[in-house]
Amino acid sequence: MDLDPIDLARRLVQDRFPDAHAVILGGSTAMGRATASSDLDLAVLVGDDGETCRETLRVEGRLVELFIHTRAGLAELFAADVASRRAVLQSVYATGLVLVDLDGAAGQARALAEADLRGGPPALEPAAVETKRYGLTDAVDDLGDAGDPIERLAVAGVVVNAAADLLFDHHRAWVGGGKWLPRRLLEADGEHGGALLDGHRHLCETGDPASLIDAAARILDLVGGPLREGYHRMWQGVIESVAVGTGR
Asked: Rounded to the nearest 5°, which phi and psi values hold at 63?
């Protein structure tokens, strides 16, 4: 059995989407970083009579994530990814391996994706930044006070995500979550992002929160400083998280 993931992706496309207008293989496989357990991320542009959906299946023992869409569906997905500040599908189209390109459809979609990526995510509203500053300040205070090691680790995760979200917005950089959080964080700001990640690792290894607190405090200084007394917001019919950032 041929276990090459790119060959597997090509066979799947031929069998399942013989009439696709464009197919892009993204993720770690396209970047040459795949492991034996890496899944295949496939963006599939189908005809206008098709459907826009996401589907997960297993083919020859490997998980496959299908992002299927019409042209109209792709425009909606791109818009949603910009609004969420994540640009996940744009990254697939901009950096992935083209498996199918019917009449230039893949190139056209890639151009749209690259334009979105160059434009950057929308800036957070000032009120949202204020709320996130308040939440991060509170989490940093909790981290300094936490005596229980399990609670300290839990709060540290909140601090990393909240500080990263503010740093992403400060640089108008695309947000990442999971394994993409450190990757995009270092791309956005190697100095402050690196210090935040190093501080988190140091805490996990030693239990000492000092360097993480310092890194988060320096990010707070970039966006207006810590916020405690004086914070005020009007009730708008929804309770939002004040600390945890947006993830992929």
From this structure: -70, 140
Nearest Cα neighbor of 115 from 94, 101, 133 is 94
Q: Which residue ranges of the chain lie beneath pLDDT 50?
A: 1-2, 243-248
User: CB neighbours of 170 closer than 8 A, spacing ≥ 6?
Assistant: 189, 219, 222, 223
Judged by DSSP in three states, 162 sits in: helix
What's residue 247's pLDDT? Answer: 38
Structure-block tokens of residue 194: 């690196």
Q: Check residue 167 and give left, alpha or beta (phi > 0: left; psi -120 to 50: alpha).
A: alpha
Between 88-95 and 71-83, two packed helices, what is the crossing angle to 10 degrees? Answer: 120
* Contact status, residue 27 vs residue 39, Cβ threshold 8 Å: yes
C-alpha span between 183 and 210 (Å, rounded): 23
Distance CA 84, CA 248 (A): 9
Report the SS3 class of residue 143: helix
Strands 53-59 and 22-26: unpaired
- What whole-number distance in Å separates Cα of residue 213 and Cα of residue 225? 13
Q: Which two tokens stand for residue 74?
A: 């792709």
Q: Could you tell me the two tokens for 61? A: 């023992």
Instruction: Give the model's pLDDT for residue 245.
Output: 42
pLDDT at position 214: 98
Q: Comparing C-alpha atoms, which of 204, 114, 217 is closest to residue 154?
A: 204
Which one, of 95, 19, 11, lies nearest residue 59 by Cα?
Answer: 11
